[in-house]
Amino acid sequence: MTANVTPWWKALKLRQEILSASGQIDDVQMSLFRAVHGKGADRPPYADAGYYGEITHPTERLIDLLAEIAVRVGGGADYLKARAVTRLDQGMGGGKSHACIGAYHLAAHPETLFGTELGQQVADRARAKMGRELLSDLGRPHVVVLPCDNMTPGAGVQEIDGPATSLYERFLWRLFSKDYSLYERYLPFWNDKHKIAEAIHVVNRPVLIIVDEVLDYVGNGLDGANRPELAAQDMAFLRALLDVVNDVPYVAMLVVMIASDADKSALSEAGRDRRDDLNTLLERNGFPATVTEVGDFSDILRRRLFDAEPAAEVVAATAALFEPIHGEKAWAKNVWDAIGADWRHQWKAEVTASYPFHPMLINLAKEEWSKVTGFQRVRSTIRIFAATVYALQQRGKAGGWVPVLIGPGDLPLSDSTVREALLGSGLVEDDRTIANYRSLAEIEIVNHDGTAGTARKQDLGRDPFQWSDANPSAAERAATFVFLASIVGTLRPGRGRGASAPEVKAATSVPDVRYTITDADIVVDGLVHPDRGMSALDIVPGQGNNKPARYFLSTRLTHRMLVSNIRRTITPAERDEVITEFAKKIASSGPFRDHKFIPADLSRPAADVLATGGLDTAYTTRLFVLDPAQFSLRNGMEQTTIEALTVAMGLGQGAQQLPVQWASSAVFAVVNTQRRSLARGMAVEYLARQRALAAPEIQNDDELKAVGTKELSDAKQQLEKSVKRAYQHVVFLAQPDPNGERYLDQLTFDEENLTALDGTSVWKGLADRDKVFDAGQFGARALLHNLRDQDYGKTLSDIRAAFYSAPRLPLLYSGDRDLQQAIYDAVSGGLVSIVDGAGAEVAVTAPGQVNLSSTGLRLAKPQPKVCSECGQPAHEGNCTAEGDPGDGETSGSSSPGGSGESGTSGSSEPGDGGDAPEPAAKDQQVAFSFTSNLLASGDATDKFAALFRAFYMSLDERQISYLQGTIQMVLQAEAAGQLRQRLEELGITATFKDI
């Protein structure tokens, strides 16, 4: 537990420059030019010798360099005990500019610098070299600073260079402190060693010459001037000066020129020749030196970042917190021993040296980062660590969790300054790779506000454990270390590719015994899980304890990685929205006169959404597509949808009973709950690929763009297919028995090629269920079959309305046109009549003359035709007198002789005046109902069996053209099963329940 130990972010005070810059230090790369010539706001804090000494850790090599200069310029007769020319040849970020500024302060402000810890150690080293004390002012040396990275050959800056334009002229102007007469006297002698030496003697003071980044001047600088004579003069001057400095007492020269094997500057052939020439001169006249080494990391960092050293008791107490977990057997066996954690053996000393950083992080920077080509060792490390300590200190002040020691998993990648300092440090050289890792950090680990990222989401979604308060960011810390181990490339110096499993577990450790190795295993397993873990992770399986698994965040499959991670950012609302868009595009009305999409409104009950959806449209067959975000059937999720449809169809009870008139002509397309989940999955895949294709990483790469385009096209096809298949159900209002109750019925498409979004498929499915007539099915006879006795006498307007509002009447394929044609055909065939208000027949000569909107014309049964002569029913031949005896004898005869038996079907009653029977009707409509307890009467059972056998024979011989009815019975379970099978084959929905 850490309650009684002062946390590092309280024990240490960040330097003001870091606080002012919010952790982003602009002056990590010190500028000699600004330190010497900077004014006002451009004058950096380190231009003050006291501040410079305060922030500079006195490394052994820096002390040695400055002591050599101090003895050479201020050691009097002992000047020969120090070298004259020193060359700093370290690569970028090695501290060369920092050393040059220290040398400048040593000569220009010796008394101030000697008042600092650095200056005191320099004085001590000089005293040891000479055997006596240095002069406190070093004899008032004169400093000539030639910052070649801020000079243009042949073009001087008036306020700094005066009339000088060449390197020699600038040297003279500075040497003589802008004394024009002396400048003029020695101006011609740029190649004369004697005159150059004489000029130095004229100053009559010790002289320190600092030439910074000389290759910038003699390399491409002189090439750009395009003045061969200037290049020749400057190179001749440098040759002479390097020789002169070695010969003139009390003169030291410090030259900065990166070694050729560490300098990647592209030079012309002439530039390379000048560099090689200067290299030879420096090797002959100078002594190479460096000012930092790997072991200086921790001290340099702490001195540069914090105002003062931490209290010894705080460091000791912090180190003691970790001892229990270092000694815990499971951690030692599975982690510490596996990663070669040698820092455990001298733990207190290691923490003292690295505080507030964990020795594991310092080792990573010293042993691995510093060996990566392009990593600017001191400069890059300071930037990364300054941003890190600032971000974590701010987090601590805000009450957030901060590690006891900052380990390799504790660099907060959610902070853009930390992330960019890391990616811009030189550890990743390729710009495209930097961009890819920037995306990886946000998608796989943690985003800018700490609310997303694969690892971060695992931490946020984890169930509380005993150790949760001590290690709330375990997955993020593990992922961060994998990230650090991956950005250095395919091979870590001395380690191999990526991070080993024990290293990742070590990065999650905290000084709390409640967090066990088992917990670390669970955290890491979740992070590398193929489904819920980091998708861009390449995993090299382990081979026993000696070769554990390794994890590497790869940018090679950028498109797959982006798709996988964008998939996790898609919200349910976005997912359902794209399904809605596709359903709208796919839906077609077919024979339905209208189709409409009913959008979800999750803020209201489903019943309210339908009740206020404007569904009750007159004289229109309608196909309504319900939004799958709120409506679905089956899988135990359909109750709210059924309740909403019940209300919408006017079947609600009490307050939910709506005045719905046209429910019969409304049909609803509804998704299947299980298939909806499949469609939702495909919608996520589609959206992920759509967004990945729009990402800059994909758009800027033609190959990945082609892959993304193809995958998006495939995902679109799959989504269309899954949305079609999801809309499996059709709901409609049914009333098979005209005298029975209305109820909701359903049609389900089991075939893969059928969908409720297709109005044509829906219509055909409903035709099989007798809810509608298909094309060409509705004629005069079908009209008669569907009319009841009470329908005769109704107006044409009422008949028309009934076909849209009465569920007992099937819907018509072409709507009003079909009804007009059927009525016209029925009237023409003498099957029905159209009469006016007085009962007189109205003639129609074309289907279009059947006025379905009329409230004055009515449909009537056909009236018998009457002979205009005798007033009797219409007949053929001459009219006969009433009671003619020949009438009865011949009306039913079976033979011309009249001796056969009279027929009964066509006989006329005596006195009807007919001389021939009426022709028998071709079809008859039969309607009957019954209720019978067959258990009480065996005779009734036999009679019903005979009735149904006659019914069966009529069906089998195709003598029945139309069926409509409802049968309710109680039968044995085995027989019910057989009946169920037959009904399913017919597509008839039946209700079965145990009694």
Rg calc: 50 Å
- The portion of residues forming beta strands comes to 5-15%
Q: Distance between termini?
A: 68 Å
Q: How many helical stretches?
A: 41
Q: What is the residue-mean pLDDT, rounded to a whole number?
A: 86
Number of strands: 15
Strand order of the largest sheet: 2-3-4-1-5
Structural class: alpha/beta
Q: What helical percentage do the residues reach?
A: 40-55%
Q: Which stretches of 5+ consecutive residues score pLDDT under 50?
A: 883-918
The biggest beta sheet is recorded as:
5 strands, parallel
Shape: elongated
Keywords summarizing the entry:
about 1000 residues; alpha/beta; five-stranded parallel beta sheet; five-stranded mixed beta sheet; 15 strands
What this model shows, in words?
The protein is α/β, with parallel strands linked by helices and 995 residues long. The chain contains 41 helices and 15 strands. The strands form four sheets. Strands 2-3-4-1-5 form a five-stranded parallel β-sheet, with helices on both faces. The protein has a five-stranded mixed β-sheet with strand order 9-10-11-12-13, covered by helices on one side. The protein has a three-stranded antiparallel β-sheet with strand order 6-8-7. The longest helix has 25 residues, at 702-726. The radius of gyration is 50 Å and the shape is elongated. Residues 883-918 have low confidence and may be disordered.
